[in-house]
Amino acid sequence: MTLNADTTSSDSPEGALAVRVWRGGATGAFQTFEVARRPNQTVLDVVTEIQREQDPTLSYRFACRVGMCGSCAMVVNGRPRWTCRTRAAAVVERDELTLEPLRNLPVVKDLAVDMEAFFAKWRDAKGFFEPGPEPANDFAVVEPSTPKRQAADAGVECINCGVCYSACDLVAWNPDYLGPAALNRAWTLVNDVRDKGQTARLAAVSGDAGCHSCHSHMSCTEFCPKALAPTFAIAGLKRATARRLWRRG
Ligand code: SF4
Ligand code: SF4
Ligand code: FES
């Protein structure tokens, strides 16, 4: 059942949630739906129930439902999260849920954002493996205990969900800032002993919109659902780019 736009129900029947959902694009309004509480219900279940049972025009994204694809991220009661791995009961406040699209990205419609700028920054940070002019034919052996391998391992599980990017105030202030996810990826590659693109990568991440802009206020690290630490990866890039400058000087 659809309730009044931009209102929440103060008299929700017991066992129901009042779910405020952003509708529209950059401009729009909240629309409130009433959804029954169910055992083990995730926030993604709530959104899916609205779309299937109440309003098929509601736009949102998901794919895996198990925390692998990263496509279901939204802002839930003010905080970016994977909705498929967030139980509604854990985050409701006074029987209310407020769902918004990820911040710092253009809204396509409702809860779906355009991720193009996010992925373009991975490219700009040279967040891709560079094998060099003569790629090795065989597998490289990289000992798990080496410091570089461990530094790469610490950030390699990123699934590109955009939660950290949505949480970063610096991206909001400076839309050109490469952002925590792209810089975290760059750091994993800086520590990849097989990679042959380090000079270009360190140059790419050391510009005005690169690692040295980061204020280290840790929102990305606090909110990353994979418990990665982009702040520390960025600190590593700051050190690596500074060393490179000293060597050149
Ligand atoms: S630590 Fe840096 S990248 Fe992370 S949220 Fe803060 S400013 Fe953004
Ligand atoms: S670093 Fe974490 S929050 Fe950021 S895109 Fe990767 S998995 Fe998502
Ligand atoms: S639907 Fe894939 S991570 Fe949530």
TrEMBL record:
<dbReference type="GO" id="GO:0051538">
    <property type="term" value="F:3 iron, 4 sulfur cluster binding"/>
</dbReference>
<dbReference type="InterPro" id="IPR004489">
    <property type="entry name" value="Succ_DH/fum_Rdtase_Fe-S"/>
</dbReference>
<dbReference type="InterPro" id="IPR036010">
    <property type="entry name" value="2Fe-2S_ferredoxin-like_sf"/>
</dbReference>
<keyword id="KW-0408">Iron</keyword>
<dbReference type="InterPro" id="IPR009051">
    <property type="entry name" value="Helical_ferredxn"/>
</dbReference>
<keyword id="KW-0560">Oxidoreductase</keyword>
<dbReference type="Pfam" id="PF13534">
    <property type="entry name" value="Fer4_17"/>
</dbReference>
<dbReference type="InterPro" id="IPR017896">
    <property type="entry name" value="4Fe4S_Fe-S-bd"/>
</dbReference>
<dbReference type="Pfam" id="PF13085">
    <property type="entry name" value="Fer2_3"/>
</dbReference>
<dbReference type="InterPro" id="IPR050573">
    <property type="entry name" value="SDH/FRD_Iron-Sulfur"/>
</dbReference>
<dbReference type="GO" id="GO:0008177">
    <property type="term" value="F:succinate dehydrogenase (quinone) activity"/>
</dbReference>
<dbReference type="GO" id="GO:0022904">
    <property type="term" value="P:respiratory electron transport chain"/>
</dbReference>
<dbReference type="InterPro" id="IPR012675">
    <property type="entry name" value="Beta-grasp_dom_sf"/>
</dbReference>
<dbReference type="InterPro" id="IPR006058">
    <property type="entry name" value="2Fe2S_fd_BS"/>
</dbReference>
<dbReference type="InterPro" id="IPR025192">
    <property type="entry name" value="Succ_DH/fum_Rdtase_N"/>
</dbReference>
<feature type="domain" description="4Fe-4S ferredoxin-type">
    <location>
        <begin position="148"/>
        <end position="178"/>
    </location>
</feature>
<keyword id="KW-0004">4Fe-4S</keyword>
<comment type="similarity">
    <text>Belongs to the succinate dehydrogenase/fumarate reductase iron-sulfur protein family.</text>
</comment>
<dbReference type="GO" id="GO:0009055">
    <property type="term" value="F:electron transfer activity"/>
</dbReference>
<comment type="subunit">
    <text>Part of an enzyme complex containing four subunits: a flavoprotein, an iron-sulfur, cytochrome b-556, and a hydrophobic anchor protein.</text>
</comment>
<keyword id="KW-0479">Metal-binding</keyword>
<feature type="domain" description="2Fe-2S ferredoxin-type">
    <location>
        <begin position="17"/>
        <end position="105"/>
    </location>
</feature>
<dbReference type="InterPro" id="IPR001041">
    <property type="entry name" value="2Fe-2S_ferredoxin-type"/>
</dbReference>
<dbReference type="GO" id="GO:0051537">
    <property type="term" value="F:2 iron, 2 sulfur cluster binding"/>
</dbReference>
<dbReference type="GO" id="GO:0046872">
    <property type="term" value="F:metal ion binding"/>
</dbReference>
<keyword id="KW-0411">Iron-sulfur</keyword>
<comment type="pathway">
    <text>Carbohydrate metabolism; tricarboxylic acid cycle; fumarate from succinate (bacterial route): step 1/1.</text>
</comment>
<keyword id="KW-0001">2Fe-2S</keyword>
<dbReference type="GO" id="GO:0006099">
    <property type="term" value="P:tricarboxylic acid cycle"/>
</dbReference>
<protein>
    <recommendedName>
        <fullName>Succinate dehydrogenase iron-sulfur subunit</fullName>
        <ecNumber>1.3.5.1</ecNumber>
    </recommendedName>
</protein>
<keyword id="KW-0003">3Fe-4S</keyword>
<dbReference type="GO" id="GO:0051539">
    <property type="term" value="F:4 iron, 4 sulfur cluster binding"/>
</dbReference>
